[in-house]
């Protein structure tokens, strides 16, 4: 019997041949490393649910940044963990708030480093929600003013990119107007445009001390069952002035990432969230998986799905592995 088939294995015969035809790569420039900043001195608090991740005080931040820069990482995203909280998240938009101070320190020691400021209220409010609360309801429009104030104060401190993560309707429009009115027309917005109400966020809430004190965030974050809603959210943010679009989480939403990439021409950012990180760390610590191989395969999958950039707690490890090549 004469067989007629294609010999795809011709292009897999050696490492050199596989390298020659490889379609997707990870680079240092793809990586954005999240940092949790706490008040106080000489603090480097391990996050129990995220092995290898720490809360770092401002005085230790220069040394932390030296390590990050030496690894070749070009961008960080800052999350503040303030000592005091209140009902309206005052610390988020104080000109000397924890993220604002951290931004100044990073830019002073590593001016070339891209500083992305997470713009949200949940780490600063005593109820743990991302906006102004009345009764059990998170109010949309009154929250916008505070988010815009937060973005402007972060831009004043030197943030290169504003990354609003609150999922209030109109948040990009309000922040864009606030930045423009304050003279920060050139500061781009990296919008958490497609942010699902996910069970993968648990370890992050330990790290950022941002667990809601009542209810949940399903009235403003998206239903994991929805696909078309992601496109509506992304379209709104693009119309309002977003410069980057984030899909969060990443691993369980690669289909959404590809949809967004196909529909919009803005840079797409995958947020490889805390739960995704912790699962791999736990499995690796138990000897169940090859951590390096699994992490690299996972992040390549995100890039293949359309991500141009990846926010990931694995960034230090990945940068080190890339340096060893």
Automatic annotation (TrEMBL):
<feature type="binding site">
    <location>
        <position position="313"/>
    </location>
    <ligand>
        <name>5-aminolevulinate 2</name>
    </ligand>
</feature>
<dbReference type="GO" id="GO:0006782">
    <property type="term" value="P:protoporphyrinogen IX biosynthetic process"/>
</dbReference>
<protein>
    <recommendedName>
        <fullName>Delta-aminolevulinic acid dehydratase</fullName>
        <ecNumber>4.2.1.24</ecNumber>
    </recommendedName>
</protein>
<dbReference type="GO" id="GO:0005829">
    <property type="term" value="C:cytosol"/>
</dbReference>
<feature type="binding site">
    <location>
        <position position="130"/>
    </location>
    <ligand>
        <name>Zn(2+)</name>
    </ligand>
</feature>
<dbReference type="InterPro" id="IPR013785">
    <property type="entry name" value="Aldolase_TIM"/>
</dbReference>
<keyword id="KW-0350">Heme biosynthesis</keyword>
<comment type="pathway">
    <text>Porphyrin-containing compound metabolism; protoporphyrin-IX biosynthesis; coproporphyrinogen-III from 5-aminolevulinate: step 1/4.</text>
</comment>
<dbReference type="GO" id="GO:0004655">
    <property type="term" value="F:porphobilinogen synthase activity"/>
</dbReference>
<keyword id="KW-0460">Magnesium</keyword>
<dbReference type="InterPro" id="IPR030656">
    <property type="entry name" value="ALAD_AS"/>
</dbReference>
<comment type="function">
    <text>Catalyzes an early step in the biosynthesis of tetrapyrroles. Binds two molecules of 5-aminolevulinate per subunit, each at a distinct site, and catalyzes their condensation to form porphobilinogen.</text>
</comment>
<comment type="subunit">
    <text>Homooctamer.</text>
</comment>
<feature type="binding site">
    <location>
        <position position="233"/>
    </location>
    <ligand>
        <name>Mg(2+)</name>
    </ligand>
</feature>
<feature type="active site" description="Schiff-base intermediate with substrate">
    <location>
        <position position="248"/>
    </location>
</feature>
<dbReference type="Pfam" id="PF00490">
    <property type="entry name" value="ALAD"/>
</dbReference>
<comment type="similarity">
    <text>Belongs to the ALAD family.</text>
</comment>
<feature type="active site" description="Schiff-base intermediate with substrate">
    <location>
        <position position="195"/>
    </location>
</feature>
<feature type="binding site">
    <location>
        <position position="274"/>
    </location>
    <ligand>
        <name>5-aminolevulinate 2</name>
    </ligand>
</feature>
<keyword id="KW-0862">Zinc</keyword>
<feature type="binding site">
    <location>
        <position position="122"/>
    </location>
    <ligand>
        <name>Zn(2+)</name>
    </ligand>
</feature>
<keyword id="KW-0479">Metal-binding</keyword>
<keyword id="KW-0627">Porphyrin biosynthesis</keyword>
<keyword id="KW-0456">Lyase</keyword>
<feature type="binding site">
    <location>
        <position position="120"/>
    </location>
    <ligand>
        <name>Zn(2+)</name>
    </ligand>
</feature>
<dbReference type="InterPro" id="IPR001731">
    <property type="entry name" value="ALAD"/>
</dbReference>
<feature type="binding site">
    <location>
        <position position="205"/>
    </location>
    <ligand>
        <name>5-aminolevulinate 1</name>
    </ligand>
</feature>
<feature type="binding site">
    <location>
        <position position="217"/>
    </location>
    <ligand>
        <name>5-aminolevulinate 1</name>
    </ligand>
</feature>
<dbReference type="GO" id="GO:0008270">
    <property type="term" value="F:zinc ion binding"/>
</dbReference>
